[in-house]
Design a protein that fits this description.
- The structure is a single chain.
- This protein is mainly α.
- Among the domains are: about 140-215 and about 260-270 and about 280-305, no CATH class; about 310-380, no CATH class.
- It is built from 17 helices and no strands.
- It has helices spanning about 15-25, 30-35, 40-45, 60-85, 95-110, 115-130, 140-145, 155-165, 170-225, 235, 240-255, 260-265, 280-290, 295-305, 310-325, 335-355, 360-380.
- The longest helix has about 60 residues, at about 170-225.
Length: about 375
Amino acid sequence: MTRGSLPLYVETRWNFTYLMLKQDIKFRGRFDRMESEDKLYNDHFLEIDNDNRKKIGPPSCNDWQSVQRMVNFLGIFYQSTLVVSASTTLNAHKCYGEIVNIASKLQLLCCSPGSEVKVKAEEMYLKFDKYWDRLKNINKMLIIVTVFDPRKKMQFATLCFEGLYGKESSTSTVLGETLLLILRNMYNEYAERYNQANVQVQQAQAQTHAETSSQNKSQNTQETQDQSQDIDEEMLDGYNPVEQRYNTLLREIGVRDTNELEAYLREAVENPEVMMGIEFDILSWWKVNCGKYPILSEMARDLFAMQISSVASESAFSTSGRIIEPYKSCLTHYMVEVLMCTEQWLKQDIKVESRVLTNAQILAEVEYEDDLQREFGALNLDP
């Protein structure tokens, strides 16, 4: 849709209705001017249609107010749809927040004085409540993945529970305890797998080290025999490097086994300062902190990979349906795959070229401009 154009109404797509009404509001002044100056525009609404009924219009002040209320109502779902249906960006940690946002706004609209919006909101909330059962039977993974957002952690989930079911209510308390129980069980499972993998790696390293030491020892023995040097074997057997003695000391005094999950939840939430138009990169944060939270980083990797909508798969089927048609039905599966991948790569290239500059790029441009100003300032000072 080009800038300033009016989208057409499509009965089967509510988002086109929202876009059409939203764009129409911007042209309200022109509609009013046409009503006062254009006779043909007014005569159009005086005509009789095929059902012997007068056409509705032109839009009055009350009509524009109704349009504005409908735009506000549909905007709730439109913005959430953009977040949930995104298939090329990370959105698993945003889904639960959007669901709670829809539920909260529908509850407010059910109490609004506007009769039309109130009726629509009540109908939508009944369907919403029936589907989610007041968000009690929702997949807990959608809530757990929000905990792995370092800006939210458990505080965000607790806030959502209290907003939906009341502060310090039994339902919010039970949901919070259930969420922590699932988190701890998941962490224990991942920790067991992580420890088993570490044991295997350590065993392999120890075996390699033993083989290397044996080879070095045999070589040293051969060299010492050639050089006729006597070495006290008892002294070598009784000698331990500093690292080995320190590890033995740690085993004797004991070291507190820290739980990554509890440590992560105890720490304060992140409050990163990002520039306007630049989104906080959660994957980069976990990449930087994977050494601090090795087990949690594996959990985050699996949780963030969840597909929360079927938009990506449906888009793939839709694209393949446009490629394979009666006039192009002899394409091989390999060629269909090549065409679909090429389309996605071209779209990704266009998106990369039009994305917002990063902080490093902005700082580099600022420094470059400062250098130019200093250079031109020095030239102007020269006699």
